[in-house]
Specification:
About 45% of the residues lie in helices and about 15% in strands. With about 350 residues, the chain is an alpha/beta fold. The strands form two sheets. It has a six-stranded parallel sheet, with helices on both faces. The protein has a six-stranded mixed sheet with strand order 7-6-8-9-10-12, sandwiched between helices.
Length: about 350
Amino acid sequence: MPSEKKATISDVAAKSGVSKTTVSRFLNGKYDNISIATRQRIKAVIEELDYSPNRTAQRLKASRAMLVGCVIGDISSPFSAVLLKGIMGACEAAGYQVLFADCNDDPEKERMAIKSFVDNRVDGLIVNTSGGNEELFLELKKQGIPVVLADRGLVSCKEIDSVTAQNRKAAYDCVKLLKEYGYERVGFFTEGNKQITPRILRYAGYCDAMNDFYPGVPVEQYVFDKTDEESCRRQIEAFRQAHPGERIAILTVNGVTTQRVMLALNSLGYGFSSFFGLCGFDDWSWIQLHPSGITCVSMPTRQLGEDSAKLLIERMTGSRGEDAPPVQIELPSVIIVRGSTIKSD
């Protein structure tokens, strides 16, 4: 009785006793160095397994445009500029040109950009996804169009190649550090986690660490409008007023949030002291210009871009076979301790 699972080129190769490369050469009519007996054996196995090659993927490989489509969540973020440098460097080194689109963290704009790239027959896609497009990515994979998710993977689905950072662990380690430094309360500040995976995972890591290091202390998430400085000031004041006399610290979800929090703190006239600390993500150059320095997680941003491009190129060129399992790469990060966090005596 035929298997309900569709046969793959790996199944044909295993049953025929040859490599996937040999099966691929047979399917493309390249019979040089393939004996008649081997050809007959492969043909018989293909018929037995009712194997049907992915013609869409074959067509794309046979007519490469040497173009990569790249969709960025928010081009205005300094993070995106560094990510793009990594993507462009690796793609250009391999002979590919890169087309960019900014979706402004809008899933619908993201879908439109992806459709435009596919219509223009790019060889593959790198997407810094805004979330909510899992079904689209799975459909692209089914069509044989290579896709790699850069920095922002999928929480509930591991079927798409992705290169991300250890976001949950990094946030957990930040809260652990703040506990070791004697802070009694830690507030999580964000401009809204939405469906953006790093933000979701960082908040989850914060919650995990609060449960482990601050048992019985409720988590405190403060959400503000990043375009409204007054909104951020109100949240900072709310956090401070909720814990008079206690040592408190803010954990920001990303570099943009850290910047907004710093602007609000300056306008409020608050500085860092033994009673007030700040820790965040993204070690951007301006952070080091602050007199005391900001404790932050240094993210492997450029490497995220480079590794995403290299993984996509492997898929597009066939050096990583179409039937190879999806790859989930998590790059480590490091906490750099500076003057915005002070140990208690």
